[in-house]
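Chain A, query sequence.
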Amino acid sequence: MDMTEKLAGRARSKALASIKGWKKVRGRDAIQKSFKFADFNEAWGFMTRVAMAAEKADHHPEWFNVYNKVEIVLSTHDAGGLSEKDVALAKVIDSIA
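Chain A, predicted structure.
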């Protein structure tokens, strides 16, 4: 399967079942998850580690940070929606968190 192919059907269901806590974004073919840390420094450290992993994967999240909270949205623009790249990055993000 091409990594930038949009996930559909059974492959999509299986992929989404493999990532806990990620929710579908209303009105978009994307997933999102919120993370909460002890303080800003811990949140920033998490974002730094995610940024390095995302750069290595050449797949970059949309994210929003306020103090100790980080919200991440994943979607593959080239595929026009959710792809295996998003699922793979979600798994890496969860392992970093």
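The first strand starts at residue 23 and ends at 24. The chain is about 40% helix and 20% strand.
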